[in-house]
Amino acid sequence: MQIETFVVEHQYEGERLDRYTSLFLGSDQSRSFVQKLIKNKSLTVNGKSEKANYRLKAKDTIQIEIPDAVETEILPENIPLDILYEDNDLLIVNKPKGMVVHPSAGHCNGTLVNAVLFHCKDSLSGINGEIRPGIVHRIDMDTTGSLIVCKNDESHLFIAEQIKAHSVNRTYRGIVCGVVKNDHGVIHAPIGRHPTDRKKMAVNEKNGKDAVTHYTVLERFSKYTYMEFRLETGRTHQIRVHMASIGHPLLGDTLYSNGKSPFALQGQTLHAMKIGFIHPKTREYLEVTAPLPDYFKRILENIR
């Protein structure tokens, strides 16, 4: 069992108990999960049980007893995969927008893992456990593009070492708000958990991990800029956080900007275009390109 304790800061006075708690537990736990904890009296305010709609006061102390996670069986699902490359050791898929990579609270099915379990049967690496078979890295739910899935532990370890050494070449395409002045640039700023909003990451000089993003302007428009990004590191939400930190959040990003745009969008306009690495068996360099999704191309046509 895990015990978490929070002291409510002044800016959250008047906030609902369930909303505040789910915010501070982060994206791993849903609001309904928090409401269940409240109902089971596993969550107290100043030592007393309160209802989910309790309005917080500054300096209230919240204590939560979070039960140990119980892994459930992850079932194969016949979900079509856009496979960019496949052999006996790995496959590279073009992940669509809206698909979660692996099961988590609130996303028990319809994930990439459910799909690859059906496609690969028993041929997946087991290093990341039952919840994440074959998954050596991931991209956000609303980010599209290339993602490696490992079919055996040897391939998983070999590619994981390249990721750790920052030798995997990862190139993204994105549309950001505003007009970026410099044709090229490097953002070198550590990224860590946001100090007050646990659903977000932030440039965090004190507690962040080193993060480096290289960018190139591909095309400028009156209100937007079409860009290419190359990652040296792979921190959570790295491109989204770095671009927001310099005043150019990704178009449609509801977490790091106001998310408002004249286009019908589901999340940020970001695509993992290319991924390149040394193949675990052939020891030769392999690079795969995921074509821009249709929604992305339509936005480019509209703003041109």
Describe this structure in words.
19% of the residues lie in helices and 27% in strands. With 304 residues, the chain is an alpha+beta fold. It folds into three domains: 2-66, RNA-binding S4 domain (Structural Genomics Hypothetical 15.5 Kd Protein In mrcA-pckA Intergenic Region, Chain A, Roll); 71-165, Pseudouridine synthase, CATH 3.30.2350; 166-304, Pseudouridine synthase. The strands form three sheets. Strands 4, 5, 6, 7, 8, 11, 12, 13 and 14 form a nine-stranded mixed β-sheet that branches. α1 (17-25) crosses α2. It is globular. The mean pLDDT is 89.
Short summary of the structure?
The chain is an alpha+beta fold. Helix content is 19%, strand content 27%.
